[in-house]
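Hello again, I could really use a second opinion on something today. I've been staring at a protein lately and its backbone has me curious. You're getting the sequence in one-letter code plus the fold written as tokens. I'd be grateful if you could look everything over and explain what you see. No rush at all, and the record is pasted right below:
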Amino acid sequence: MRIISREDQEQRERAVLADDAACAADSEGRARSSSPDALRTDYQRDRDKILHAKSFRRLSHKTQVFLASEGDHFRTRLTHTLEVAQIARTITRALGLNEDLTEAISLGHDLGHTPFGHTGEAALSAALARHKGIDPESPAAGRLYRHNEQSVRVVERIENGGAGLNLTFEVRDGILNHTGNLRAETLEGRIVGTADRIAYVNHDIDDAIRAGVLCEADLPATTHAVLGADHSARIETLVRDMVETSAATGDIAMSEPVWDAMMELRAFLFARVYTAEPVMAEVEKATHLIGNLFDYYAAHIEEVPEDYRAISEGDDLRAVTDYIAGMTDRYATATYQRLFIPHALSY
């Protein structure tokens, strides 16, 4: 039996992958030099670093949309991440691009998400705005905390006691630029950005149906006509269209009708699911919890773990932000109860 070395895999990438694929041997490298691995390419090594990171494990107890405690089958931030990775790898493989790079970016793209999903992100931004003297309702407040930027901070500074994971430039670029109108430098990074939307649009519908917030028939008929009338059909249509359109255009893209249908579903989710009563019933509670935790630790900075204070470079609000952003839903809740809920005295 022959050993397949890192060099063998790098040569195979050059021979097999598409001309515009990101080959590991051509990486722009890491912030700090390190000896190459004997068996793994740099992107494989990055994937494994993320997989073994504490921040990655904590994703299993962070909310996607519906609190995981409401049922065992609702998505968490971890299962969302795995679904993104699966969709992105399928597209990447079909286009002859680098699956290892795509997987590494996918696994790391949400490491900076707060507890309680996007509600936590908004609450953290509002808390930061108050302490910085900025109107919490202003557009500037919403830019104070962004999960993609925090994800990069996690892999560059927070993990390993401030040393970070020392990932390659391409993985960090893909993590930073996976959301909104941002555009990663590699095709693999651009795939993750769209795979993220494909994943959450579809699994959030699935979870909303499970929660009784809506049924399949409630979805717009126009999207059924373009994408299909069930979960599997929609994902298959979106993935196939993305592969075919990207192959035809030479960039990562969807056809206009399919893209428009996906964005119509996304708008539908904001109108009917993300603001639905079962979700909104918890939003005010989670917002209050995050805000109170932030205020408490900003006033008692000595109670923030030393690791976070050490890497904040004297910025107390930065230390508090890093600490709270890294909490899981249950840890944040337990901490709130410990700090603010009276406990019975035992004699």
Q: What stands out?
A: The CA atoms of residues 125 and 195 lie 26 Å apart. The domain at 42-340 is CATH 1.10.3210.10 (Hypothetical protein af1432). DSSP finds 17 helices and no strands in the chain. The chain has one domain: 42-340.
